[in-house]
Amino acid sequence: MKKTYLFIILSLLCWNFSLAQTLEIKEGVLICNQEIFNLSDKKTNIYDLLSEKRHENMFYAENEKNYSFLDTCYLTYILNFEVDKHLLKKDIIRLKFDYIDTYAKIILNGNEVATTQNAFRSYEFDVKDFLKKGENSLIVEIDPIYQKWQAVNSDEFNILQSEKRAVFRKAAFQFGWDWAPRQLAGEISLPVRLTFEDKKEYLRFASVQTEKISDNSANMLLTLKTEFLENKPYNIKVSYSTEGEETITKNLGDFYLANSEENISKLQFEIANPQLWYPNGYGKPTLYDAVVYISDEQSKVLDSVKTRFGIRTIKLSQEKDKYGSEFCFIVNGKKIFAKGSNLVPTAMHKERYEGLAKHIDLVKDCNMNMLRVWGGGYYVDEQMYNACDEKGILIWQDFPFACALYPASEEYLAEVEAEAKENVLRISSHPSLALWCGNNEIWEGWGNWSWDKEVKDTVLAVENYNKLFRELLPKVVENYCQTIDYTHSSPLNGWGRKESLTEGDCHYWGVWWGDSVLETYTRKIPRFMSEYGFQSAPNIKTVNKYFTLPYSKENEGFAIHQKHNRGFELIDNRILERFDGYNKDEDYINKASYVASEAFSIGIESHLRALPYCMGSLTWQLNEPYPAIGWSCIDVDYLKKDVYHTIQKSFAPVVISIDKFSNQDTIFIYVINTSWNDFNMDLLGKITDCDNTAIYSFEIESQILPQMQSVCVLEIAKKDIGYYDESTTKLEVFGSYKDENDNLITIDNSSYFVYPKHLKCNKE
Ligand code: BMA
Question: How many CB atoms neighbour CB 377 within 10 A?
């Protein structure tokens, strides 16, 4: 085999109190079907490497078909590196992988170090015995999952024959989804790290959570992960600071930490006069930087670790009321209206969500304050959590389980427990974390999708569900992240059931899957809408980059990007209500966008008008890892789709909404204020005819808009509008108010009363 010369980066990290050294292995080769590819830390997966070698865009036209053979390909990563003999003298030498997907064998200098089977964990191994002076060879072999997947006997695991993927701890969407192709080949991320350390007492990790906020102080919970402690008292100090304030150091006292379970210890401290963290639209997301020190009895500092936190409480209120029970987030003691979207992975492979971290302003500028991390992807990585902490974007984190029955053998539960412990503890310090949720649409599937007819043992299926989602996962959350609530599934009830509108969260798919007209949203108001949406094509630049003309379902270079089996039909049904037809070019893209924009504005405004009955609206979906004709508002290249602008407008702090659907004789005009400030608004409105002559107008001065309220400011009886013909009229409403910073804000909304094809005059 061709000898590979590798780039080794040896970085000396001078930690405060001992000399630890890290060797980063950033380059190597990947072999697939005897073909050799050079790796770099930017390119580690076979799909990117192959498309680079072929000089082609993998997702252009039908190209993706030529990559499907990779599903069955055996992959071998070869990473050679040099080790200095001094390093070998260190007591603890560990090999660390941030990401290995799935079923890998790790071989170091001919010795099998370990096998892995879970893409949701990071891995580290003691390798002191396997390393040698000079050149070392690390080989990672990844077996294709495809053959294992085909061979799964679903009855053996009591899972669905149609969703055998559930046996593997690998992101569900990679098996193919209705917005993504199937791409199953595994990978590792680079750099792989070797750490060389002396054996001594270590503070490995610290997380700070908020337990309680009272008048002038906050009670904080400090969770520490330690290693190699002895059975003696250790002193713990925390230094913390936030921008513009002095650093405060607190001595928390002396503790016997060595006997803690799994080296995890929990301590408490208080912060006086805390600066609170608030979500976008409700205040500043203030962050604190902290350093935790561990010292011995002689006050010698043994180790320290940095962390970052925010001071906020967040609760999910599911209090019962006369309708059912609410589903509402309470931040720092006050209710918020959750505005946001569902986050899916930003790339088909290792990148997970990092890409969006760099584009997080797209989320903030869209007036969003919450993202739900959909369970068919991964646990969100640090970059993205950090970005959300900084911008005030709350994260609802599903555990990675979606749309399938999952096994619950001891072995499987042990894997899930390991991944959950690692990720829950890692994420617990982030103030953006709002909720842990067991899974996506499994409880709904069980109750509504005839799974009971497909699975071998229905009693066992419920037992398995309970073991995973009502026992194991809530227990991990309780142990490692006790300040954050847990709910076992999203949604609580399937959208066909009446309870979906009176209690819990709801995924309402009557519009789209159910082929209902868009205005159905006005009648299907849940307590919290956690998924709903309508498809459209990517931004036109992205369309031109990936799709070929004509834009018709007969042209595979276009049609391959529609992954929903009834997608074209459902879009057509709504377009043809509004337009007489379309050309199979940009005209189709524009008309589909028109429909989707209308869907999102009707949906969001319906939820807002129903405040406080409805306390959240999360569109499906924020982003996509592939150029799909799909539901996202940001496309694969991070470009805004038309629907982005619609959603941004509808998620503004104060919104004018025209309700023309709930009563055929009356038009209702609402103003909804989802902020925590009261405003006064002046409103102006007119109904114009074809020649722009006003046939009706109104003015409202100093309309009081109390915080967190939806106010019906005017009812217009159609009989009172002089000459009125729905096919020739348009209603426009303008409003202006001074916001909390005394800035003059102007907003507007407008509406026609018939579909474009029935409009008798040619208005823009
Ligand atoms: C919801 C999601 C996804 C899916 C979307 C659109 O149910 O949970 O599974 O992509 O519908 O069909």
Answer: 24
Instruction: With both helix axes pointing from N to C terminus, report the angle between 410-427 and 473-480 in degrees, rounded to the nearest 10.
Output: 30
Beta strands per DSSP E along 66-166: 75-83, 92-97, 100-101, 104-108, 111-116, 123-126, 134-142
- Considering the domain architecture, whether residues 636 and 665 belong to the same structural domain is answered as no
CATH of the domain at 749: 2.60.40.10
The helix/strand/coil state of 556 is helix
pTM of the entire structure? 0.96
Query: Locate tokens 């009272």: which residue?
Result: 214
Task: Provide the token pair at 81.
Answer: 């590196």
Residues 85 and 121 in one domain: yes
How far apart (Å, rounded) are the C-alpha atoms in residues 503 and 748?
33
Q: Is 507's C-beta closer than 6 angstroms to any atom of ligand 1? A: yes
Angle of the 642-650 helix axis to the 586-609 helix axis, nearest 10: 10
Q: Which of 594, 623, 650 is the last residue of a domain?
A: 650
Q: Which of 490, 509, 515, 620 has most ligand 1 atoms within 8 Å of its beta carbon, as the pocket-test mutant?
A: 620
Q: Give residue-wise pLDDT tens across range 327-359.
A: 999 999 999 999 999 999 999 998 889 899 999
Give 567 Cα–ligand 1 centroid separation in angstroms.
13
Q: Whose CA is nearest to atom 12 of ligand 1?
A: 178
- Which tokens is 469 given? 């989602």
Closest CA to 604 of 695, 727, 508, 716: 508
**Residue 8 clears pLDDT 60, i.e. is over it:** no
- Amino acid letter, 504: G
Written in H, E and C, the secondary structure of 567-615 is: HHHHHHHHHHHHCCCCCCCHHHHHHHHHHHHHHHHHHHHHHHHCCCCCC
Dist CA 519 CA 427 (whole Å): 39
In this structure, which residue's CA is closest to atom 6 in ligand 1?
178
* Residue 12: exposure state from Cβ atoms within 10 A (0-12, 13-18, ≥19): exposed
One domain, residues 544 and 609: yes
Model pLDDT for residues 698-756, shown as the tens digit of each residue: 999 999 999 999 999 999 999 998 777 899 999 999 999 999 999 999 999 999 999 99
Q: Compute, in angstroms, the gap from residue 512 CA to the centroid of ligand 1.
A: 11
pLDDT, position 9: 36
Report, as an integer, the average pLDDT of 418-446. 98
The total number of structural domains that make up the chain: 4
d(CA 634, CA 538): 8
Q: Name which of 572, 566, 579, 580 is nearest 551 in CA terms.
A: 572
Element of type H or E holding 558:
helix 556-559
The residue whose CA is least distant from atom 10 of ligand 1 is 178
Q: Is 440 near ligand 1, meaning CB less than 6 Å away?
A: yes
Query: 374 and 440 in contact (C-beta within 8 Å)?
Result: yes
Measuring CA to CA, how many Å separate 51 from each of 61, 172, 215, 449, 502? 14, 23, 59, 39, 50
Q: Do 382 and 477 fall within a single domain?
A: yes
Q: Is the CB of 177 under 6 A from ligand 1?
A: yes
pLDDT at residue 85 is higher than 70: yes
116 beta partners = 104
| Residues paired with residue 599 on neighbouring β-strands, in sequence order | none
Separation of 576 CA from ligand 1 center, angstroms?
24
CA of 731 to the centre of ligand 1 (A): 35
Q: Residue 263's CB: how many other CB atoms inside 10 A?
A: 17
Residue 376 CA: which ligand 1 atom is closest?
9
| Encoded amino acid at 138, one letter | L
Q: Which domain holds residue 252?
A: 202-309
Q: Whose CA is nearest to atom 9 of ligand 1?
A: 403
